[in-house]
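Weekly modeling sync, notes
Attendees: S.R. (lead), two postdocs, one rotation student

Agenda item 3: backlog of single-chain predictions. S.R. asked that every request posted to the team notebook include the full sequence so nobody has to chase files. The rotation student volunteered to paste the first one in as an example of the format we agreed on. Action items at the bottom.

Example entry:
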Amino acid sequence: MPELHDTIVSPVVTEKSSAAYAARKEYAFRVHREATKPQIRAAIEALFKVTVTDVRTMVVRAKRRSLGRYAGRRPSWKKAIVTLKEGDAIQVFEG
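Predicted structure, as returned to the notebook:
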């Protein structure tokens, strides 16, 4: 079981996640591969002092990459999309 700071790896800030934040107040995070939805909920609530209403998770598939004659792949990772209670906000995404 990962610790609180190990559960949430980093925020995912892309055009798509920014549009989801603007439209539906959904936040995207890169999370530990073995983290469960209750663990993600507890970590977000403890770290950012907000109330989480919904957690959706998905595993982002690995991508194949090549550099000249060398072929490899990027690792797969887990993403969590978190919806907060009305009125709550996370400052990482505000600025």
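Discussion: group reviewed the output briefly. The chain has a mean pLDDT of 90.
Action items: rotation student to repeat for the remaining queue; S.R. to check formatting next week.
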